Task: inverse folding
Protein backbone atom coordinates (compact mmCIF):
# COMPACT_ATOMS: atom_id res chain seq x y z
CA UNK A 1 0.00 0.00 0.00
CA UNK A 2 2.83 2.39 0.88
CA UNK A 3 4.60 1.59 -2.37
CA UNK A 4 1.47 2.37 -4.39
CA UNK A 5 0.99 5.64 -2.51
CA UNK A 6 4.58 6.63 -3.21
CA UNK A 7 4.14 5.82 -6.89
CA UNK A 8 1.03 8.03 -7.06
CA UNK A 9 2.80 10.90 -5.30
CA UNK A 10 5.76 10.60 -7.65
CA UNK A 11 3.41 10.62 -10.64
CA UNK A 12 1.76 13.81 -9.36
CA UNK A 13 5.13 15.50 -8.92
CA UNK A 14 5.98 14.76 -12.54
CA UNK A 15 2.87 16.61 -13.75
CA UNK A 16 3.63 20.27 -14.57
CA UNK A 17 2.43 22.80 -11.99
CA UNK A 18 0.26 24.67 -14.50
CA UNK A 19 -1.51 21.46 -15.45
CA UNK A 20 -2.13 20.57 -11.78
CA UNK A 21 -3.60 24.02 -11.16
CA UNK A 22 -5.84 23.71 -14.21
CA UNK A 23 -6.99 20.26 -13.11
CA UNK A 24 -7.76 21.52 -9.60
CA UNK A 25 -9.69 24.50 -10.96
CA UNK A 26 -11.77 22.29 -13.24
CA UNK A 27 -12.56 19.92 -10.37
CA UNK A 28 -13.57 22.83 -8.16
CA UNK A 29 -15.97 24.16 -10.79
CA UNK A 30 -17.46 20.69 -11.26
CA UNK A 31 -17.96 20.23 -7.50
CA UNK A 32 -19.60 23.65 -7.19
CA UNK A 33 -21.92 22.91 -10.12
CA UNK A 34 -22.88 19.50 -8.70
CA UNK A 35 -23.53 21.05 -5.29
CA UNK A 36 -25.81 23.69 -6.81
CA UNK A 37 -27.70 21.05 -8.80
CA UNK A 38 -28.06 18.93 -5.66
CA UNK A 39 -29.60 21.87 -3.81
CA UNK A 40 -31.94 22.56 -6.74
CA UNK A 41 -33.17 18.95 -6.61
CA UNK A 42 -33.37 18.57 -2.83
CA UNK A 43 -34.75 21.99 -1.87
CA UNK A 44 -38.31 21.51 -3.24
CA UNK A 45 -38.61 18.17 -1.43
CA UNK A 46 -37.33 19.69 1.80
CA UNK A 47 -39.71 22.63 1.53
CA UNK A 48 -42.60 20.21 1.01
CA UNK A 49 -41.59 18.28 4.12
CA UNK A 50 -41.30 21.52 6.12
CA UNK A 51 -44.79 22.58 5.02
CA UNK A 52 -46.07 19.16 6.11
CA UNK A 53 -44.97 20.06 9.65
CA UNK A 54 -46.47 23.57 9.65
CA UNK A 55 -49.94 24.95 10.24
CA UNK A 56 -51.98 26.80 7.64
CA UNK A 57 -51.24 30.11 9.37
CA UNK A 58 -47.49 29.49 9.27
CA UNK A 59 -47.59 28.48 5.61
CA UNK A 60 -49.48 31.66 4.72
CA UNK A 61 -46.80 33.72 6.45
CA UNK A 62 -44.18 32.65 3.92
CA UNK A 63 -41.48 30.11 3.16
CA UNK A 64 -39.42 28.51 5.91
CA UNK A 65 -36.54 26.04 5.93
CA UNK A 66 -37.07 24.99 9.55
CA UNK A 67 -39.67 22.30 10.39
CA UNK A 68 -42.44 23.19 12.80
CA UNK A 69 -44.36 21.09 15.32
CA UNK A 70 -47.69 20.46 13.59
CA UNK A 71 -46.85 17.18 11.87
CA UNK A 72 -48.99 15.07 14.23
CA UNK A 73 -51.90 17.48 13.92
CA UNK A 74 -51.67 17.46 10.12
CA UNK A 75 -51.53 13.68 10.14
CA UNK A 76 -54.62 13.49 12.32
CA UNK A 77 -56.43 15.93 10.03
CA UNK A 78 -55.48 13.89 6.99
CA UNK A 79 -56.61 10.62 8.54
CA UNK A 80 -59.93 12.15 9.63
CA UNK A 81 -61.01 12.84 6.05
CA UNK A 82 -63.56 10.52 4.52
CA UNK A 83 -61.41 9.22 1.69
CA UNK A 84 -59.46 5.91 1.86
CA UNK A 85 -55.90 7.25 2.01
CA UNK A 86 -54.25 4.10 3.39
CA UNK A 87 -56.30 1.87 1.07
CA UNK A 88 -55.22 3.96 -1.90
CA UNK A 89 -51.60 3.63 -0.78
CA UNK A 90 -51.81 -0.16 -0.84
CA UNK A 91 -53.77 -0.09 -4.11
CA UNK A 92 -50.88 1.76 -5.73
CA UNK A 93 -48.40 -0.73 -4.29
CA UNK A 94 -50.34 -3.68 -5.73
CA UNK A 95 -50.63 -2.10 -9.17
CA UNK A 96 -47.05 -0.83 -9.28
CA UNK A 97 -45.35 -4.05 -8.21
CA UNK A 98 -47.63 -6.34 -10.24
CA UNK A 99 -47.26 -4.40 -13.47
CA UNK A 100 -43.52 -4.01 -12.95
CA UNK A 101 -43.04 -7.74 -12.33
CA UNK A 102 -44.87 -8.60 -15.56
CA UNK A 103 -42.98 -5.95 -17.49
CA UNK A 104 -39.60 -7.17 -16.26
CA UNK A 105 -40.17 -10.84 -17.00
CA UNK A 106 -41.75 -10.56 -20.43
CA UNK A 107 -39.67 -7.61 -21.64
CA UNK A 108 -36.47 -9.43 -20.75
CA UNK A 109 -37.85 -12.55 -22.45
CA UNK A 110 -38.60 -10.59 -25.61
CA UNK A 111 -35.17 -8.97 -25.62
CA UNK A 112 -33.55 -12.36 -25.07
CA UNK A 113 -35.41 -13.71 -28.10
CA UNK A 114 -33.94 -10.92 -30.25
CA UNK A 115 -30.41 -11.67 -29.06
CA UNK A 116 -30.32 -15.45 -28.70
CA UNK A 117 -32.11 -16.43 -31.91
CA UNK A 118 -31.96 -15.61 -35.60
CA UNK A 119 -35.17 -15.78 -37.60
CA UNK A 120 -36.85 -14.18 -40.60
CA UNK A 121 -38.43 -10.79 -39.91
CA UNK A 122 -36.41 -10.19 -36.77
CA UNK A 123 -35.23 -6.73 -37.79
CA UNK A 124 -38.75 -5.77 -38.86
CA UNK A 125 -40.19 -6.77 -35.49
CA UNK A 126 -37.51 -4.86 -33.63
CA UNK A 127 -38.13 -1.80 -35.81
CA UNK A 128 -41.82 -1.98 -34.90
CA UNK A 129 -40.89 -2.02 -31.20
CA UNK A 130 -38.69 1.03 -31.67
CA UNK A 131 -41.49 2.75 -33.56
CA UNK A 132 -43.95 2.06 -30.73
CA UNK A 133 -41.57 3.84 -28.36
CA UNK A 134 -42.05 7.02 -30.39
CA UNK A 135 -45.87 6.96 -30.31
CA UNK A 136 -47.41 8.88 -27.37
CA UNK A 137 -49.67 6.71 -25.24
CA UNK A 138 -52.35 9.41 -25.27
CA UNK A 139 -53.08 8.64 -28.93
CA UNK A 140 -54.42 5.19 -28.08
CA UNK A 141 -56.43 6.17 -25.00
CA UNK A 142 -59.83 6.25 -26.70
CA UNK A 143 -59.35 2.91 -28.41
CA UNK A 144 -57.95 1.35 -25.24
CA UNK A 145 -60.87 2.67 -23.20
CA UNK A 146 -63.39 1.18 -25.65
CA UNK A 147 -61.57 -2.17 -25.61
CA UNK A 148 -61.59 -2.26 -21.81
CA UNK A 149 -65.32 -1.53 -21.69
CA UNK A 150 -66.10 -4.15 -24.35
CA UNK A 151 -64.13 -6.78 -22.42
CA UNK A 152 -65.97 -5.96 -19.19
CA UNK A 153 -62.79 -4.90 -17.42
CA UNK A 154 -63.86 -1.36 -16.61
CA UNK A 155 -63.34 -0.33 -12.96
CA UNK A 156 -60.83 -3.16 -12.37
CA UNK A 157 -57.06 -3.25 -12.00
CA UNK A 158 -56.60 -5.68 -14.89
CA UNK A 159 -56.18 -3.02 -17.63
CA UNK A 160 -53.69 -1.21 -15.39
CA UNK A 161 -51.52 -4.30 -14.89
CA UNK A 162 -51.72 -6.64 -17.90
CA UNK A 163 -50.65 -4.11 -20.60
CA UNK A 164 -47.29 -3.87 -18.83
CA UNK A 165 -46.41 -7.14 -20.58
CA UNK A 166 -45.87 -5.08 -23.74
CA UNK A 167 -43.31 -2.44 -22.74
CA UNK A 168 -41.24 -1.34 -25.77
CA UNK A 169 -38.93 0.85 -23.70
CA UNK A 170 -38.08 -2.02 -21.36
CA UNK A 171 -37.45 -4.36 -24.31
CA UNK A 172 -35.02 -1.85 -25.80
CA UNK A 173 -33.26 -1.44 -22.45
CA UNK A 174 -32.83 -5.17 -21.92
CA UNK A 175 -31.67 -5.76 -25.50
CA UNK A 176 -28.94 -3.16 -25.07
CA UNK A 177 -27.89 -4.85 -21.85
CA UNK A 178 -27.81 -8.27 -23.50
CA UNK A 179 -25.72 -6.94 -26.38
CA UNK A 180 -23.17 -5.45 -23.99
CA UNK A 181 -22.94 -8.15 -21.32
CA UNK A 182 -24.53 -11.45 -22.33
CA UNK A 183 -22.55 -14.44 -23.61
CA UNK A 184 -24.28 -17.05 -25.75
CA UNK A 185 -21.75 -19.67 -24.74
CA UNK A 186 -23.58 -20.47 -21.50
CA UNK A 187 -26.80 -20.95 -23.45
CA UNK A 188 -25.15 -23.31 -25.92
CA UNK A 189 -23.60 -25.27 -23.07
CA UNK A 190 -26.98 -25.60 -21.36
CA UNK A 191 -28.59 -26.81 -24.59
CA UNK A 192 -25.91 -29.46 -24.97
CA UNK A 193 -26.68 -30.62 -21.43
CA UNK A 194 -30.32 -31.04 -22.42
CA UNK A 195 -31.92 -28.01 -20.76
CA UNK A 196 -35.05 -26.67 -22.47
CA UNK A 197 -35.36 -23.03 -23.49
CA UNK A 198 -37.54 -21.84 -20.63
CA UNK A 199 -35.32 -23.54 -18.06
CA UNK A 200 -32.31 -21.81 -19.59
CA UNK A 201 -34.10 -18.47 -19.44
CA UNK A 202 -35.40 -18.85 -15.89
CA UNK A 203 -32.33 -20.39 -14.26
CA UNK A 204 -29.44 -18.94 -16.25
CA UNK A 205 -30.43 -15.86 -18.21
CA UNK A 206 -32.42 -14.04 -15.51
CA UNK A 207 -29.73 -14.39 -12.80
CA UNK A 208 -27.15 -13.02 -15.24
CA UNK A 209 -29.10 -9.80 -15.83
CA UNK A 210 -29.98 -8.92 -12.23
CA UNK A 211 -28.38 -5.42 -12.49
CA UNK A 212 -30.55 -4.59 -15.50
CA UNK A 213 -33.64 -6.03 -13.83
CA UNK A 214 -33.03 -4.01 -10.67
CA UNK A 215 -32.55 -0.83 -12.66
CA UNK A 216 -35.60 -1.29 -14.86
CA UNK A 217 -37.64 -2.24 -11.79
CA UNK A 218 -37.05 1.20 -10.33
CA UNK A 219 -38.18 2.92 -13.52
CA UNK A 220 -41.21 0.64 -13.77
CA UNK A 221 -42.30 1.19 -10.18
CA UNK A 222 -41.83 4.95 -10.41
CA UNK A 223 -43.74 5.18 -13.69
CA UNK A 224 -46.62 3.02 -12.47
CA UNK A 225 -46.78 4.76 -9.09
CA UNK A 226 -47.03 8.19 -10.73
CA UNK A 227 -49.57 7.06 -13.31
CA UNK A 228 -52.63 9.29 -12.96
CA UNK A 229 -54.35 9.33 -16.35
CA UNK A 230 -54.84 5.56 -16.60
CA UNK A 231 -56.59 5.06 -13.24
CA UNK A 232 -58.54 8.29 -13.70
CA UNK A 233 -59.92 6.97 -16.99
CA UNK A 234 -60.62 3.40 -15.85
CA UNK A 235 -61.38 3.48 -12.10
CA UNK A 236 -64.60 4.91 -10.67
CA UNK A 237 -65.00 3.19 -7.28
CA UNK A 238 -63.48 5.31 -4.52
CA UNK A 239 -62.15 2.25 -2.64
CA UNK A 240 -60.15 1.31 -5.75
CA UNK A 241 -58.53 4.73 -6.21
CA UNK A 242 -54.77 4.87 -6.48
CA UNK A 243 -52.70 7.21 -4.34
CA UNK A 244 -52.26 9.94 -7.00
CA UNK A 245 -56.04 9.99 -7.48
CA UNK A 246 -56.63 10.44 -3.76
CA UNK A 247 -54.09 13.26 -3.63
CA UNK A 248 -56.11 15.11 -6.25
CA UNK A 249 -59.00 15.22 -3.77
CA UNK A 250 -56.81 17.40 -1.57
CA UNK A 251 -57.06 20.14 -4.18
CA UNK A 252 -60.82 20.45 -3.93
CA UNK A 253 -62.40 23.27 -1.97
CA UNK A 254 -63.25 20.88 0.82
CA UNK A 255 -59.61 20.52 1.83
CA UNK A 256 -58.09 23.80 0.69
CA UNK A 257 -58.44 25.32 4.17
CA UNK A 258 -55.80 23.00 5.68
CA UNK A 259 -52.60 23.58 3.74
CA UNK A 260 -50.48 21.58 6.17
CA UNK A 261 -52.56 18.44 5.64
CA UNK A 262 -52.41 19.00 1.89
CA UNK A 263 -48.61 19.26 1.98
CA UNK A 264 -48.39 16.09 4.07
CA UNK A 265 -50.59 14.20 1.61
CA UNK A 266 -48.45 15.27 -1.33
CA UNK A 267 -45.26 14.43 0.56
CA UNK A 268 -46.57 10.92 1.23
CA UNK A 269 -46.78 10.30 -2.51
CA UNK A 270 -43.06 10.78 -2.99
CA UNK A 271 -41.78 9.04 0.16
CA UNK A 272 -41.86 5.50 -1.35
CA UNK A 273 -40.05 6.73 -4.45
CA UNK A 274 -37.39 8.47 -2.36
CA UNK A 275 -36.82 5.31 -0.33
CA UNK A 276 -36.55 3.15 -3.44
CA UNK A 277 -34.14 5.54 -5.10
CA UNK A 278 -32.02 5.88 -1.96
CA UNK A 279 -31.63 2.10 -1.77
CA UNK A 280 -30.97 1.42 -5.45
CA UNK A 281 -29.42 4.67 -6.69
CA UNK A 282 -26.07 3.06 -7.47
CA UNK A 283 -27.78 0.26 -9.38
CA UNK A 284 -29.78 2.83 -11.36
CA UNK A 285 -26.68 4.77 -12.39
CA UNK A 286 -24.78 1.64 -13.41
CA UNK A 287 -27.76 0.27 -15.29
CA UNK A 288 -28.32 3.51 -17.21
CA UNK A 289 -24.65 3.58 -18.21
CA UNK A 290 -24.84 -0.01 -19.46
CA UNK A 291 -28.23 0.37 -21.15
CA UNK A 292 -27.03 3.48 -22.94
CA UNK A 293 -24.21 1.57 -24.62
CA UNK A 294 -24.37 1.31 -28.37
CA UNK A 295 -24.34 -1.88 -30.33
Result:
Amino acid sequence: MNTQAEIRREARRQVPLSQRIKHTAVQTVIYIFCTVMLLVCVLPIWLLFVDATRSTTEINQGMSLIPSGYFAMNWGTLMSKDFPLIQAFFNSIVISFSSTALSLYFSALTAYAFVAYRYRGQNVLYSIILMLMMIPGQLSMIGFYKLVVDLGLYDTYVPLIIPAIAAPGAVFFFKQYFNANFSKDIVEAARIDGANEFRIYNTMVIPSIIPAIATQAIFGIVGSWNNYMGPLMLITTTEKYTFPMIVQLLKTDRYNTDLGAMALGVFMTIVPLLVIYAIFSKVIINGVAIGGGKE
Remarks:
- The first helix runs from residue 2 to 14.
- Residues 4 and 272 are 44 Å apart (CA to CA).
- Residues 2-77 form one domain.
